[in-house]
Amino acid sequence: xxxxxxxxxxxxxxxxxxLRLLVVLVxxxxxxxxxxxxxxxxxxxxxxxxxxxxxxxxxxMPSKWIRGALALAxxxxxxxxxxxxxxxxAGVALLVVMAALKLTEMDQRRDVMVMMFLMYFVCxxxxxxxxxxxxLVYLLLSTVAVTTMLIESNHAGEPLPLKVTAKxxxxxVLQALPLMLLMFVLFPRIPGPLWGLPxxxxxxxxxxxxxxxPGDIAALILSDELAFRVDFDGEALPQNQLYWRGPxxxxxxxxxxxxxxxxxxxxxxxxxQGAAIGYEITLEPNRTTWxxxxxxxDQSQLPPDSLVTVDGRLLASKPVRERIAYRAVSHxxxxxxxxxxxxxxxxxTRLPRARNPRAVALAQQWRTEGRDDAAMIAATLxxxxxxxxxxxxxxxxxxxxxxxxxxxxxxxxxxxxxYASAFTTLMRAGGIPARVVTGYQGGARNAIGDYYTVRQSDxxxxxxxxxxxxxxxxxxxxxxxxxxRVEQNLASALGAEESLPFALRRSGxxxxxxxxxxxxxxxAQWNRWVLAYGPDLQxxxxxxxxxxxxxxxMLAMIVALSLATGVFGLIALRRARxxxxxDEALRLWRQAMHRLARDGLIQRPHEGPxxxxxxxxxxxxxxxxxxxxxxxSYLATRYxxxxxxxxxxxxxVRAFKPRRIKA
Length: 663
Prior knowledge:
The protein folds into four domains: about 15-185, no CATH class; about 210-500, no CATH class; about 535-575; about 585-655. The protein has 23 helices and 19 strands. The chain is an alpha+beta fold. The chain is elongated and about 135 Å long.
């Protein structure tokens, strides 16, 4: 019939339901799209678009041979893109593309159910990449959407109004939240993740590298990604003393600095001076062993499973693949109590031959003029300060074989790594032991939570020189060119023509700064009380309620789940119970009819009171008088509106006790 409605595009789903399902699938896959290769994101969107078009045009599904060929092609493409098919990134990429290809065979109820549970599973994979608060909110909404589609896909015929199914889906998720919270609090925690993650799991590694070349930190500086948060025990150090130590570079090939050096030998003995600074750092995953701290860290109060190297770096025993918190104590002032070993001195004064000859000649000229170490340092800083040197995010590319010479005598425009590299080269050429240190400088105070946030945009490079009687001394040549970088922040040190993302220009909008501070505080609390809810925090929290050990936890969890299940069961039984009849006359009538039903005399759905009484009297003439009186009182009460007849009806119902007929 031409006028018949087109109810299905497949043998199961209605067209409107299928289109809604595709929208929910896009919602679930959206965060992964930015992580996938361009070809895969385009292919997934193309398959979803084709399925929507096919639904509206009522096309048939591809044959199994075509589907098989597409699956093999997708499998091979993922392998070529990642060099593997397992692991965090490759595994999720394969899951996403196969979920999209499932649309090409989704024509039975079983296929639809598989797609639903695939979407639930894809939701959980987002936590492999981000565990921020926004991720939870987004995935909670996605779960409600998937649950809504699960309800709608099980409704035969025309789809229900979206408002109705969305309300039911949201209600189901809300009902599950108490059980989820109960399991989260009581389920015994074990150290680390609940399952072994693949080798490429975790967040992307920190922007800092184990090598440094001109332009590396300048490229990193545009990232507003959080590196770590710092909570000081008391008053924080001034901004110009917040140097968070990271990789230390000893080797130089004329262009690039690398670690090398006597890394894992014991630190030099020092005499700590001045007041100690205690603080707690919450470090974001960086997939390296670097733990950041201020100089000079107190070795008697190291974080667990960590060590200090000879060049003052704090290292963890294994790569940081999840957010960790650790405490440290530092002494900004110290004196060396030993001489620099000859081997270390040679390493700290070594320069490649025939590289950057003009810089080497300048340093040697200063030496021949009789300048000592302090004068050499002062001369270099004076040159940076008084000559036409500029601090810029967009320095010219140093493409020659002698980049230090090119920077010092030609371009004179650079970022912190240019100045640290040039300064260290001049010091070594003058016979002064020197090395490059990278890490972070400064931090933004969060007035809401009274802590500091250090971001990738705070990445910095500086130098250290060895001075007799003092040991390794920090010299930041960038401060000679752009003192605002050290005293305030990056934005204040750059010229108006420099292009910075809005998020990094923190002084530009007071409202934005306040909102950012509040949001960061919320995320800090989320990290502290939810993401960091491990064995220690669980033990500390539950001990307040007298729960100690695994046995108490399991018992409490079983009791709590039993009580919760019982409450939900009672609620379900109450909802399933027939509604109470508000009409008193009707309630009394049904009470009397229930007594007749014991003898098999049941009022049929289409049968009115008078017809039913007439039929009963034919079968049980002895009940005629009682039933006629009962019927008259019921009709007078309910239909005639005689309120006085209700008391009589109640008395008649109480007295109505028909005797059963014995077989």
